[in-house]
Amino acid sequence: MVTVVVNKFKCGYCGACVSVCPTGALELVETWIDVSEMCTACGICVRICPVGAIEVEK
Amino acid sequence: MKSEYDVVVIGAGPAGSIAAKTAAKKGLDVLLIEKRQEIGDPVRCAEGVSKIWLRKHIEPDHRWICADLKGSRIFSPDGTMIEMAEEIAGGEVGYVLERKIFDRALAYESAKAGVEVMVKTRALDLIIENGFIKGVKVMHLGETYDISSKIVIAADGVESKVGRWAGIDTSIKPSDIETCAQYLMSGTGIDQNYCYFHIGNEIAPGGYVWIFPKGGDLANVGIGILGSKSGEKHAVDYLNEFIEKNYPNARTLEMDVGGVPVCGSIDKTITNGLMLVGDAARQSDPITGGGIINAMEAGKIAGEVAYNAISKGDVSINALKEYEDRWRAKIGHEIDNSLMVKDIFIKFTDPEINSLAHSLEKVNFSSMSLLDLLYALFKANKKLLWDLRVLFKNVIKYDMDFER
Ligand SMILES: Cc1cc2nc3c(=O)[nH]c(=O)nc-3n(C[C@H](O)[C@H](O)[C@H](O)COP(=O)(O)OP(=O)(O)OC[C@H]3O[C@@H](n4cnc5c(N)ncnc54)[C@H](O)[C@@H]3O)c2cc1C
Ligand code: SF4
Ligand code: SF4
User: Fold this and answer.
1) Are B233 and B214 within 8 A, CB to CB?
2) Which of A17, A42, B351, B384 has its CA 20 to 30 A from that of B300?
3) Helices vs. strands in chain A: H and E counts, helices first
4) B153: helix, coil or strand?
5) With a 6 A CB cut-off, is B44 part of the ligand 1 pocket?
6) Residues B42, A28: C-beta atoms closer than 8 Å
7) How many angstroms separate the CA of residue B98 from the nearest CA in chain A?
8) Residue nearest to atom 53 of ligand 1 (CA)
9) How much is the pTM?
């Protein structure tokens, strides 16, 4: 399955990625991002993240 | 936490705290939930706010004010400076806040008004019956609870999911978000009376760099770039480049990141039993990115409308239309017009921005209002800015001031 992984060491838990995800696959829980199976690996969140913490993983 | 309230407010930012406080003051039984363990932290804000508008909601308190602003200095790509300073009594027009303390103070005000506040409590989903929002499913310390309410107010910020759960698509396109990074820095040497803006596609594509004084020798040094221009390089990369070039000896004490919606108002912010407020309703200003005051204005209206609707025993979309109408009348026109201005300015090349700045070199500004700046620009560059003329007509029509 193609999905995204969030580098939790880089992530500043700001929620910007959640707001741009067209499928609602992301959730900012408290201090981490959860990725659900709804992710289509479209790559939008990867581009938007202010610190580049997200990568598409094969 | 009880199992039933008149109103549940999701998110204890400025929008949620003001909405909760307003509803409680009217006599409603209100629960305010916040998923973070500390309200206001981490900060995702440059913390600049207009004084006049702030006073409408809370008496300024030195505990959460870091700096008093006299004016702004805007720099074009070639370094041309436009200075705008207010000459009103005392010469102070804006504040730079300490959001961590400010947000908590707003939540405290709501608690004093009778609101039950719960932290580490996250909304997981809405309870929907017969097309009406009837409450919220929440998680608190790993346990889930169902809480029923007559009205839910969604103040869950940029990452809002509540609207989506209710069938309102609030997802933002990459071209409609500013992706931002900021450091709190010591030793930039800026004048603490001014906020600084640096514009240019090379340093901040589709956005700008800001430097806001934070008292002592501290400042928020941050950047926003348009989401559609982010990717190869991210906001933080542009920020690091700017700092390396301009403030190589400044020290970083805090790092903040975030996204600001610049899409303008969304079509619909209500449904049966639900109102969206603040960043959740994408009410931030598309040109400045400011959202604190708009969030508080909308929060106040939502609190009042919750009371009106519950008193009448009608929480349907028809009753809540009062919220939609009132926030659009109060802040909606400025948001729409800012969007138009943003769409014009986003297209300018750096040489065009330079020539706009040069056209203002002899203009003497006696205020730091965005409107004055735009008007001066328009007068000197009618051809380039011809599309802006609609703006000035609207300003007169809706009596707008662009001061928030
Ligand atoms: C880098 C940056 C700089 C900015 N600079 C300025 C500025 O100088 N001036 C200005 O006016 N505005 C500025 N803004 C915008 C401003 O920060 C926001 O508009 C403002 O915070 C919006 O307030 P809010 O109450 O709507 O949302 P927020 O302040 O984001 O509050 C939302 C709250 O909801 C909580 N929440 C979210 N989901 C849930 C859930 N499921 N359950 C429970 N709680 C939840 C969040 O944890 C958060 O505490 C800036 C934004 C950024 C990112
Ligand atoms: S946008 Fe980046 S920094 Fe922000 S929450 Fe998502 S992964 Fe983390
Ligand atoms: S890759 Fe696309 S679908 Fe997957 S989480 Fe990111 S934005 Fe959402």
Assistant:
1) no
2) A17
3) 2, 4
4) strand
5) yes
6) no
7) 18
8) B258
9) 0.95
Which helix (H) or strand (E) segment holds residue B210: the answer is: strand B208-213
- Percent of residues in chain B assigned helix, strand, coil, to nearest 5: 35, 30, 35
Report the largest interatomic distance among the alpha carbons of chain B, rounded to a whole angstrom.
Answer: 64
Report the chain B residue with the minimal C-alpha distance to residue A11: B257
For the segment B11-65, what is each residue's pLDDT rounded down to a tens digit? 999 999 999 999 999 999 999 999 999 999 999 999 999 988 999 999 999 999 9
Closest CB to B44 among A14, A21, A30: A14
Sole residue written with tokens 């990452």: B159
Would you state the pLDDT for residue A1? Answer: 74
Alpha carbons B355 and B189: distance in angstroms, whole number: 28
Question: ipTM value of the model?
Answer: 0.97
Longest dimension (CA), chain A: 26
Contact (CB, 8 A) for B306 and B363: no
B4-10/B143-154 β-pairing:
parallel
What's chain B's Rg over C-alpha atoms? 21
Among A30, A46, A52, beta carbon nearest to B37 = A30
